[in-house]
Design a protein that fits this description.
single chain; 252 residues; 2 domains; 4-stranded mixed beta sheet; 10 strands; 48% helix
Length: 252
């Protein structure tokens, strides 16, 4: 087996950076890449990093499923490791940020859409090409349709036609578009690190949970959460730091 890792992890200054580096197949979602990505997520979550950045080397963020591997295998293959990776990015209590400087196709869009924040270069293009090889964007529709109203992405899913970064931002698939992806990601990481860890984790959870609740339940749950956080040590430190005009030192 090639000793060169397809995915690598670097942890520094509170940020866990996971890099896809399978450039020979445009970071396609081979069994090995997905397994290594899962292992890197294990290590990132076991560390003291407070934010996880998913980035790539090479001209493509991810080209989707490894079709050569699928064609050479017996049967359709097991999609559960890919589902597990997407769930990890969605469910992690640390904010996850996709840093996208190159093209994204098919399953790569699902991987990207599983992150809380998605920063893409102005020139990046996307395409949901599944229908053109006789399948549907099935499992990746779960993270995609959590972000995007079905009507806004229906044409892209039904035709497989490419679409632009501006279109992706307009439909809600990505959060930030610009010419300096690395700088924008660094600024977002600094913002996350400035907040209290428990408050950031609670905020990530409510962003996913509140939209699915009825009004009474939402207010009941959020009132309880607010009371709990205001009584906690992070709020005490945050308000003291505000009064004393100093940076907060968050309790561990």
């Amino acid at each position: 087996m090639d000793a060169h890792p397809l995915v690598r992890l670097d942890i520094a200054d509170g940020v866990a950076t996971i890099t896809l580096d399978s450039q020979h197949n445009r970071n396609a979602l081979s069994r090995r890449l997905v397994a290594e990505l899962g292992s890197c997520l294990d290590d990132a979550e076991a560390s003291d990093a407070r934010v996880i950045v998913l980035r790539h080397d090479g001209p493509a963020f991810c080209s989707g499923a490894d079709l050569k591997e699928r064609a050479a295998g017996d049967g359709p293959g097991d999609s559960s490791p890919m589902v597990a990776v997407m769930r990890r990015l969605i469910d992690s209590d640390r904010p996850t940020i996709a840093a996208v400087d190159g093209a994204v196709r098919a399953g790569g869009i699902g991987l990207m859409a599983s992150c809380d924040l998605v920063v893409v270069h102005t020139d990046v293009t996307f395409a949901l090409t599944e229908v053109r090889i006789g399948v549907a964007a099935a499992i990746i529709s779960v993270p995609i349709l959590r972000r995007v109203p079905a009507g806004k992405i229906a044409a892209a899913m039904l035709t497989g036609e490419p679409f632009t970064a501006a279109s992706a931002r307009d439909m809600g698939l990505v959060t930030h578009v610009g010419d300096d992806v690395e700088g924008a990601v660094a600024q977002l990481c600094a913002g996350v690190l400035a907040g209290a860890p428990r408050a950031v984790a609670a905020t990530k959870q409510l962003l996913h949970r509140v939209p699915g609740l009825d009004l009474d339940t939402a207010f009941d749950e959020m009132r309880s959460l607010s009371d709990q956080l205001f009584r906690g040590p992070d709020a005490a430190e945050g308000m003291a730091a505000f009064r004393e005009k100093r940076p907060p030192v968050w309790p561990s």
